[in-house]
Amino acid sequence: MYLGRFAPSPTGPLHAGSLVAALASWLDARAAGGRWLVRIEDVDSGRCRAGAAERILAQLADCQLLPDAPPLYQSRRGARYQQMLDVLRARGLAYPCGCTRRDIDAALAAQGLAHERHHDRPYPGTCRAGLHGKPARAWRFHLEKYLSNWPQTQAGKAPAAPFSVEDKTLRWQDRRLGPQSQDVAREVGDFVLRRADGLWAYQLAVVVDDADQGITDVVRGEDLADNTPRQMLLQAALGLPTPRHLHTPLVRASDGEKLSKQHGAPALDTRAPLPPLAAAARVLALPEAPRESAVAQALAFWVAAWRDTYNRAP
């Protein structure tokens, strides 16, 4: 059975970009005759704003995008994340790291590499062999070790992972973007599972949550597409299923940057929900709903259009 989700971070109310992801994930679930959940990704407590989760849920309700179960809150799931980190540690696939960002930048500079804006700092593996007298700050996934044994790690597993790894490059298929690939070792390196400030990293939390909630399909903004290989590898390492993925177009500000709360995106006024919903549908290349449609009628129209576009028969 299809099970999808919308997973906002409560750093502020919904804006135009986040409504696109919410509408797309809801439409995909309804077009497949499946269920749709909301997960509040509040694990990064320092960025969360009081009352934002409740505001987001109210905005979704205004738009008649109603989840089929109560929301899941990441902030209540630390014990589960610790359990899964312990699994990786027991398998030798997680290790403590004492590096600061300055340390990583210095190590990259020594290799003739510079940190590119909007890109992750590829971790150079400094602490793989030990902390070298530094205090432990974070926990990292031992990507190099896992990929070096890739054919053996997958032997006899069923079902087979819905992606391939060759020469440490992971290849997978996105339902909208088509064939995707990433050399995870070169572009990312051993990524963080638990941060230096003690908070759980997005990569581990989302993988554990998707598995525990039984998510079959992830529909989210295309800015998160480059996170997908890391999550697929973590799922494989933990013996968890890998969902299908569809990454949606982004709403961009006038300067070309992704519209986001951090860049001052205005909150949506959902008291009259049809205009913002229609704007989100246009971003998703869906046709205009018939004039004088009520919200429920417009949503039903877009469900049918979505099904035609993505061949998702219920």
Automatic annotation (TrEMBL):
The taxonomy runs: Bacteria, Pseudomonadati, Pseudomonadota, Betaproteobacteria, Burkholderiales
Instruction: Indicate which residues the UniProt annotation says bind ATP.
Output: K261
Which domain of life does the UniProt lineage start with?
Bacteria
The protein's name is Glutamyl-Q tRNA(Asp) synthetase
Q: Does the keyword Metal-binding apply?
A: yes
Which positions does UniProt annotate for L-glutamate binding?
A: R5, F6, A7, P8, S9, E41, Y202, R220
The record's free-text note on cofactor binding: Binds 1 zinc ion per subunit.
Binding-site positions, Zn(2+): C97, C99, Y123, C127
